[in-house]
Amino acid sequence: MSLTVGTQGGGAPDAAAPGSVPLPGDQPPLVRIRNLHFSRGEREIFSGLDIDIPRGGITAIMGPSGTGKTTLLKLIGGQLRPDRGTVEVDGLNVHALSRQELYRLRMRMGMLFQSGALLTDLSVFENVAFPLREHTALPEPLLRKLVLLKLEAVGLRGARDLMPSELSGGMARRVALARAIALDPMMIMYDEPFTGQDPISLGVLVKLIRQLNDAARLTSILVSHDVEETNAIADLVYVISNGKVVESGAPAKLAASGSEWTRQFMQGLPDGPVPFHYPAQPLEQDLFGEKS
Amino acid sequence: MTELLARLGQSGIIFLRHLGRATTLLLHILSSVGEVLRRPRLLLEQLFSVGVLTILIIGVSGLFVGMVLSLQGYYILSQFAAEATLGVMVAASLVRELGPVVTALLFAGRAGSALTAEIGLMKATEQLSGLEMMAVDPVRRVLTPRFVAGLISMPLLAALFSALGVAGGWFVGVGLLGVDDGAWWGQMQARIDWNEDLLNGVIKSLVFGFACVWIAVFQGYNCLPTSAGVSRATTRTVVHSSLAVLALDFALTALMFN
Q1: Is the minimum CB–CB distance between B127 and chain A shorter than 8 Å?
Q2: Selection from A46, A30, A64 nearest residue A244 by Cα
Q3: How far are the Cα atoms of A274, A275, B91 from residue A281, in angstroms, in the given order?
Q4: Over the stretch A58-101, which tens digit does the pLDDT of each residue have?
Q5: Is the Cα torsion angle B193, B196, B197, B200 positive or negative in sign?
Q6: Which of the pair, A172 or A21, is modelled with greater confidence?
Q7: A119: nearest CB among B127, B132, B135
Q8: CA-CA distances (angstroms) from residue B195 to A265, B90, B156, B180?
Q9: Max Cα–Cα distance, chain B, nearest Å
Q10: Which of B225, B245, B217 is nearest to B26 (CA)?
Q11: B236-to-B126, B188, B240 alpha-carbon distances in Å
Q12: Residue to test with chain B: of A81, A130, A133, most B Cβ within 10 A
């Protein structure tokens, strides 16, 4: 698929915001976030965030650690409630839904947690079977076939009898991915899927995310700060910092961005608008002056 | 002085906030009890984990408590030539007080702390969040089966404690100290009342079980999702449960035996 994307600062690329993303078949975005405000205590995480996630593609949300990327996924999934603003998924205002309606919506969402979040007292097979057992009344032989197919898709059919404690980090994430697609969701949210992976696991995950997205016609939201891997598979990238969208667009366009901040982030430069040093008094004063 | 008042006020607000959260959680748990009963496998797994795995410590403790009671009771009663009533003393002490109270304290230490640690770790490793995102209510799926299992287990464990305590007391009193076997059982049968002693003991163990398991699941569900947070929650479960059991015991004893 190809998405041509406009670039702008501080907003979602839609008809209402500056810049626009021509969406496939002019469909409305699957996720529409408007004027999102969210704080934790005194600390403001989002201050008027606008984001559109188009259907059918992989949209990456990138930014330095602590900018609220995981928080954003929890807001989209309805696990957190914003102070202000709206989050719409498939036309539904997530935070205006009743508990039952929210659970019905979540059955159409999958989420891959950073830790995998596998149930540690269940085997690999039972973990993948879990959502099917909870939400369907499939006969056991059919359920078994479905689970094995999901595990085959992530290359772990042979590991069905292992317990989560016997899996490597990469394998655990692949099992979690198989579980996330068990109910054939319309979208999957990936929370830092590449963190702490060896090169082989990393390559497998990158390939799997792209393949699953295209084969199952999913919409994927990928939260990450691994620039290279994310750029390799994302159709659209939002870079966020200080509670707002700094820039958005196709990976190639962001790589050639004129913004110093974006360039520092995308190229991993140690110094720039985000300084290497945490704010402090001059070194000389710290070493030879009075104690502060 | 003003600062002291402010601190007291703040502590009061925090306590009320926790109480409100705990009550909301309890209502949520109670509203999903029916669904758990319809899925007995979930309940059976937890009955094993919460109840069966606690049997050993309860059984051994009951046996030794009964033996000590018998020794101490014989020493005092024999001074008044009343050692024939030793069986009544041992049984009444166990079914009225020691059975429910000591069982609840041991239950809080063994099963309560394990419940808190398990739920807290599930929270820290995002398993509870994972359930939510799979459209599965973690309270219904994880907390309620554990709550119901604890509630069912406590009176059974207390009964076991008392039964083994009587057996231990019999072994020391009749077997080692020479109290008449017929007097031991006969006096016990005549003096231990079904309502006054046994039923009140069962009510106490139910109330203690309710308090212990409520505290345990709340502390686990409400803990900070870090290793230090889980550790603190586990400690709080044991301390709060023990204090609650002792305070409730006083209140219930005052009500029941006037």
Answers
A1: yes
A2: A46
A3: 17, 14, 74
A4: 999 988 878 888 899 999 999 999 999 999 999 999 999 999 99
A5: positive
A6: A172
A7: B127
A8: 75, 18, 17, 27
A9: 70
A10: B217
A11: 22, 39, 6
A12: A130
Partners of residue B129 in chain A, C-beta under 8 Å:
74, 79, 113, 117
Among candidate residues A24, A66, A30, A20, the one with its CA nearest the CA of residue A46: A66
Helix (H) or strand (E) run with residue A220 in it: strand A219-224
For residue A116, the tally of other CB atoms under 10 A from its CB is 24
Q: What does the DSSP assignment read for A8-57?
A: -SSS--SSSSSS----GGGPPPSEEEEEEEEEETTEEEEEEEEEEE-TTS
Sheet holding A219-224, edge to edge: A109-112, A187-191, A219-224, A58-62, A236-241, A244-249
Q: Which of A104, A111, A134 faces B133 most closely, judged by CB atoms?
A: A111
Three-class DSSP category at A221: strand
ipTM score:
0.81
The answer to whether the predicted template modeling score (pTM) of the entire model surpasses 0.90 is no
Contact yes or no for B157/B211 (Cβ under 8 A): no
Do B147 and B49 form a contact (C-beta atoms < 8 A)? Answer: no
For strands A58-62 and A43-53, give the pairing.
unpaired
Encoding tokens for residue B116?
Answer: 């808190």
Say if the Cβ atoms of A117 and B125 lie within 8 Å. yes
Whether A232 contacts A206, CB under 8 Å:
yes
pLDDT in tens, chain B (258 residues): 888 899 999 999 999 999 999 999 999 999 999 888 888 898 999 999 999 999 999 999 999 999 999 999 999 999 998 888 999 999 999 999 999 999 999 999 999 999 999 999 999 999 999 999 999 999 999 999 999 999 999 999 999 999 999 999 999 999 999 999 999 999 999 999 888 889 999 999 999 999 999 999 999 999 999 999 999 999 999 999 999 999 999 999 999 876
Quote the CA–CA distance of B116 and B123 in Å, as a whole number: 10
State the sign of the Cα–Cα–Cα–Cα dihedral A115, A116, A117, A120.
negative
CA distance A290 to chain B (A): 33
Q: Between β-strands A84-89 and A187-191, what pairing exists: parallel, antiparallel or unpaired? A: unpaired
Angle, helices A199-215 vs A169-180, to 10°: value is 10
Torsion of CA B120, B124, B126, B129, to 10 degrees: 50
